[in-house]
Specification:
The protein has 263 residues and is of the alpha/beta class. It contains 9 helices and 9 strands. α4 links the parallel β4 and β5.
Length: 263
């Protein structure tokens, strides 16, 4: 088995494409040992070829399978001598459509991957984080955790839950000296972004289309910083303030935007 040889290490779910892939490339480029996990075997193989098999482990993982996740953490622990500097729970899926029109199986797939998978990962890896000074438990939330997004209500609900979990753990994990934080990306140029949103993204402003490499940079900043929420782009924080101070106003704006109310 490939060994980390004392290097700092990061465990990334959803590592084969998009934000996870860019994060793996960035951290590997900085000399870190990368644990890359995904259900996309082809993407993992491509990533391994770029990073090099001596610089990480590249394994299939369905994050909703608790037994498999525990096995992955155990294997990673052997490679890193029981240490983990960053747990990056990034794997996620979305389903487009109005909530009452979605098949129930589609609803539960999103919940099981985006929320249950995150909880499984944190629960399984906390012992490694505790054993590593300065470690970080980081999770990908979403700008849809600022205010619920119509058309992706289930995705939005899971990201609200992830944000709440992160906030609670940012307090609980302090007793071990472990930090917890999340990312709140906006419209990121990845395969997960629906074409409808990609088409209406403005050229500038908080809802502009942002490259996945900017999310990777936020992961790097999160390890070296101490904030709780990392907005990508940073000016999304303005929307968080707006949603907190005038949720009814945001509700009406969104209703008009989706054609569910008159201007």
């Amino acid at each position: 088995m490939t060994q980390s040889n004392g290097r700092k290490s990061i465990f990334i779910t959803g590592a084969a494409s998009g934000m996870g892939r860019e994060t793996a490339l960035l951290f590997a480029g900085q000399g870190w040992f990368v644990g890359a996990f995904d259900v996309d075997r082809v993407g993992l193989e491509r990533l391994e070829n770029e990073i090099g098999s001596d610089n990480g482990m590249f394994e299939y993982l369905d994050v909703s399978d608790r037994g498999a996740f525990i096995d992955a953490v155990d294997a990673f622990s052997v490679a890193t001598e029981g240490k983990l500097d960053v747990l990056f729970n990034n794997a996620g899926v979305g389903v487009n459509g109005l909530f009452d029109e979605l098949p129930w199986d589609s609803v539960m797939k999103v919940v099981n991957i985006n929320l249950i998978g995150v909880m499984i990962g944190i629960h399984a890896a906390t012992s490694l984080l505790k054993a590593t000074p300065g470690s970080l438990c980081l999770t990908t939330s979403s700008s849809s955790a600022i205010f619920g997004s119509a058309g992706i209500a289930v995705y939005s609900a899971t990201k609200h839950a992830v944000r709440g979990l992160t906030e609670a753990l940012s307090v609980e994990l302090k007793r071990y000296g472990v930090r917890a934080a999340d990312l709140l990306p906006g419209l990121i140029d990845t395969p997960l972004l629906p074409d409808t949103l990609r088409a209406i993204a403005p050229p500038e402003g908080m809802w502009r289309l942002t490259p996945a490499s900017q999310v990777a940079k936020a992961v790097w900043d999160a390890y070296h910083g101490d904030k709780l929420h990392y907005y990508v782009p940073e000016d999304l924080k303005e929307f968080d303030v707006q949603a907190a101070t005038d949720p009814e106003g945001v509700r009406e704006e969104r209703a008009v935007m989706f054609g569910f109310a008159s201007p």
